[in-house]
Design goal:
By secondary structure, this protein is mostly helical. 77% of the residues lie in helices and 0% in strands. The chain is globular, with a radius of gyration of 20 Å.
Length: 325
C-alpha cells in the first residue's frame, strides 16, 4: 500500500540528493521521508474518517453503550484482534489511537489496540513462520494478543483519563459540539463535510510538530545505531538479560518485519529465544518516536505508566518464552 512512498523516498535520497546507499545519513533521511509522508497521510485519512463516524454515532452514545453493557473483557480482546489485522509499526498505530480517543472509545480499549498492532500482524506472522516455525509463531501470536488484552484491561482499571492532555479534551469538546449541531439541525452528509474536514485539518496541524520530531528521532536511530550494539547484554548466562533486552530495545525503532531477521541472528548466536523475542517486542512496541507522538495526547505521567505496564508484560512474556521453548 505504501510502496509508492518508498519509491519516492528512494528517488529523492539516492537520485536527487545523490547520497550513496548504505550510508548512515542516507538511511536516516530515507526513513524520515518515508515515515513522515506515510504517517501524515494516515493521520489525515483516519481522523477524517473518524470524524464522519462520530458525526453519525455521537461520542456519548458510544461511551454509554460501553459502560452499560458488560462485555467481560471482550472489548479488549476485540481491540487486540483488530490490531492484528492492521500492519502498522508503533508510530503508524498512533493515528488510529488518536481517532479512537476522539471517538469516545475507552482509553484501555485503545491501549489494547496500540499495544497489539505493531507486535502482531500478517506480515510479522508470515516472517515468524519462516524464521522460527509454526509452533513458535502460534505461541507468539497468542502471547501478543494476550499482552494487548491484559495490559489494556490493567490500564483501564487505573482510570487514567485524567492524564490526557488539554488538547485532547478540547478535541473531544469540539467533536461533541459539532455532533450536537448535526443532530439538532439534521444536516445532510454534504452539509457536515466542511465541518468534519475543518476539524480534521485542525487536529492534524496540532500534531504535525510532534510527528516531525518523533520521526526525526526514529530516523537518526534507524541510521546510526548499529544492530549488533546490544548483543553483549543478552547472553544466556545473564539472569537479567530479558529486562535488559526489553529496556535497551527502546532506542532501536523499527517495525516487526524489520527487526525479525535481527532476532533470528541473535538466536543463531546463542541468545535464548525468549530474550530475543522480548528484544523484538521492545523494539516494535516501545520506542522514543512513539512516545514523542503520544506526547500530544498524553501527559508524561500517562506515557510513563503506559510504557511501564507494557514493559512489565513484555518482560514476563520473555521469561515465559524461555521456559516454554
Amino acid at each position: 500500500m505504501f510502496d509508492w512512498i518508498q519509491h519516492f523516498a528512494d528517488w529523492l535520497v539516492y537520485e536527487v540528493f545523490a547520497l550513496g546507499k548504505g550510508q548512515h545519513l542516507s538511511e536516516a533521511l530515507n526513513f524520515f521521508i518515508y515515515d513522515t509522508i506515510k504517517i501524515l497521510l494516515l493521520l489525515l485519512t483516519i481522523i477524517f474518517l473518524m470524524g464522519v463516524v462520530n458525526s453519525y454515532f455521537p461520542i456519548d452514545r458510544v461511551k454509554n453503550y460501553l459502560s452499560r453493557n458488560k462485555l467481560y473483557g471482550l472489548e479488549y480482546l476485540m481491540a487486540s484482534l483488530f490490531g492484528v489485522v492492521t500492519p502498522f509499526c508503533s508510530c503508524s498505530s498512533v493515528p488510529l489511537f488518536i481517532g479512537f480517543v476522539s471517538g469516545g472509545i475507552p482509553l484501555g480499549v485503545t491501549f489494547a489496540f496500540l499495544i497489539t498492532s505493531p507486535l502482531v500482524n500478517e506480515v510479522a506472522i508470515g516472517l515468524f513462520v519462516g524464521l522460527f516455525g509454526i509452533k513458535t509463531t502460534i505461541i507468539y501470536v497468542i502471547s501478543g494478543i494476550l499482552l494487548g488484552t491484559i495490559a489494556g484491561s490493567i490500564l483501564q482499571k487505573l482510570r487514567l483519563e485524567r492524564y490526557l492532555t488539554p488538547w485532547v479534551l478540547e478535541v473531544l469538546a469540539n467533536a461533541q459540539r459539532d455532533q450536537d449541531i448535526f443532530q439538532a439541525e439534521k444536516q445532510s452528509f454534504r452539509q457536515r463535510l466542511p465541518v468534519i474536514w475543518k476539524e480534521a485539518s485542525n487536529i492534524l496541524k496540532g500534531i504535525i510538530p510532534y510527528v516531525i520530531i518523533g520521526i526525526a528521532i526514529g530516523g537518526l536511530m534507524h541510521g546510526y545505531i548499529p544492530e549488533g550494539f546490544f548483543e553483549q547484554y543478552m547472553s544466556k548466562d545473564n539472569l537479567f538479560a530479558v529486562p535488559m533486552a526489553t529496556i535497551l530495545a527502546v532506542p532501536m525503532y523499527s517495525n516487526a518485519s524489520g527487526i525479525l531477521p535481527v532476532a533470528q541472528v541473535l538466536v543463531a548466536k546463542g541468545i535464548p529465544l525468549g530474550t530475543a523475542i522480548a528484544f523484538m517486542m521492545g523494539v516494535v512496541g516501545l520506542s522514543l518516536p512513539e512516545a514523542m507522538l503520544l506526547k500530544k495526547v498524553m501527559t508524561l505521567k500517562l506515557i510513563a505508566i503506559f510504557f511501564g505496564v507494557v514493559t512489565l508484560c513484555i518482560i514476563i512474556s520473555g521469561y515465559l518464552f524461555n521456559l516454554i521453548l
